[in-house]
Amino acid sequence: MMPRDAEVVVVGAGPAGLTTAAALAERGVERVLVVDRDDEAGGLPRFCSHLGFGWEYTHRLETGPGLVRRLLRRLDSNAVTLLTRTSVLSVKPGPKVELVSGRHGHMHVEPRAVVLATGIRERPRSARLVPGKRPAQGILTTGQLQQMVARGVPVGGRRAVVVGTEHVAFSILLTARHAGLDVVAMVGAEDRIMSYAVAGLVARTMGVPIHLSSTVDDIQGADRVESVALRGPSGQRSIACDTVIFSGDFIPDAALMPGSGIAVAAATSGPSVDQYGCTSAPGIFAAGNVLRAVESSGLAAIEGARVGTNVAAYLEGLLAWPDVGTCIRLTEGLAYIVPQRWVPTNDSGYATRSLPISLRALADVPRARLRLIENGKEVWAGREMKVLRHRRLALPAAILDRLRGGDAALHLDPV
Question: Looking at 29-171, which runs of residues are DSSP E strands?
């Protein structure tokens, strides 16, 4: 298949993009083009050799490369064309896609539907406003380190400080060992680690001190990092190191949003979607971590599969492009919700695959209860629960099916 003949273009070949393509092929769509700017498909997981990828989707303990191999095996090569080393330059209303490929050159494609599955990217040191000198070597992000190790590129350092305490920060402890790095400290601005408590226990068992409520105040070094200065509860201290790894601080890779006609969700900086993955631009869907940063690879894969089902229904005329629907307003204490809009449930019996709900709070709350209010009346109240920042809050999709198009607000009420 030539790219210009594609019926659906999927932008991004990570877990969400690959499962979108597989679902489309399984439902009879025969001309699916998946494009990715990297040299191979798989997205971030292909560089992560530790276990824990795709669990929600496969229910298997797999490494990142293992998950990618499994997803690639599901693709029907008769229906799906995978085009790597290909950059999408723009997505316009229509939809219209402009891309450039080393194999096919510069092209304009007008598919019937587009799925944005471009995933996430990390903010580098410059975007985090960390003061200090600018050494030529020794400052990395998690993704850079993972790619260097996976590709066999020497890191060059020996003593590393990891800035961040979320899940991916602790996976770096293993990656750093492969790179010959000794992690001498982890630094977190929050008053607790943002990953699971057991991760902190593992780090301390490995002899890695964790400095909480602390920030990097200074980086010293010319040709290479020589030390970092931390400011924390006990004042300022200096740690000798030659490598600083900035972890997490992910944002949606939404570079294609300008000019696309897609409304941006202010709370996530990603596309605003309804429960079917429909954006505000007819024919353009979105799935995976471009919607918000960051959920697991397994959840991204689930989203891709469900959006693929819904795109197939749209192509068959079984899913009319929805109106705006009910915009779900968040009250104090809640960070974001995806999907942000809820439309009347489709009754075709085909495209009823709602996205899993991603809902997160801004801060820890010892005891709280979620409540859904529409037009001043309580539609639903959840059970009391402990709320942790950076953890997904349980909200069943069936609850939002009760909305009738009025003013809807989610409340997080401390108990």
Answer: 32-35, 80-83, 86-92, 96-101, 105-109, 113-116, 120-122, 139-141, 159-163
Domain end marker among 248, 266, 297: 248
Residue 25: φ, ψ to 5°: -65, -40
Helix, strand, coil percent content, the chain, rounded in steps of 5: 20, 30, 45
* Per-chain mean pLDDT for the chain: 93
Q: How far apart are CA 89 and CA 120, in angstroms?
A: 17
This prediction has a pTM of 0.93
* Domain termination site, one of 226, 248, 270: 248
Same domain assignment for residues 359 and 408: yes
Q: How far apart are the C-alpha atoms of 86 and 77, rounded to whole Å?
A: 18
Is 171 found in the same domain as 226? yes
* Residues 256 and 116: beta-carbon distance below 8 Å: yes
pLDDT band of 62, cuts 50, 70, 90: very high
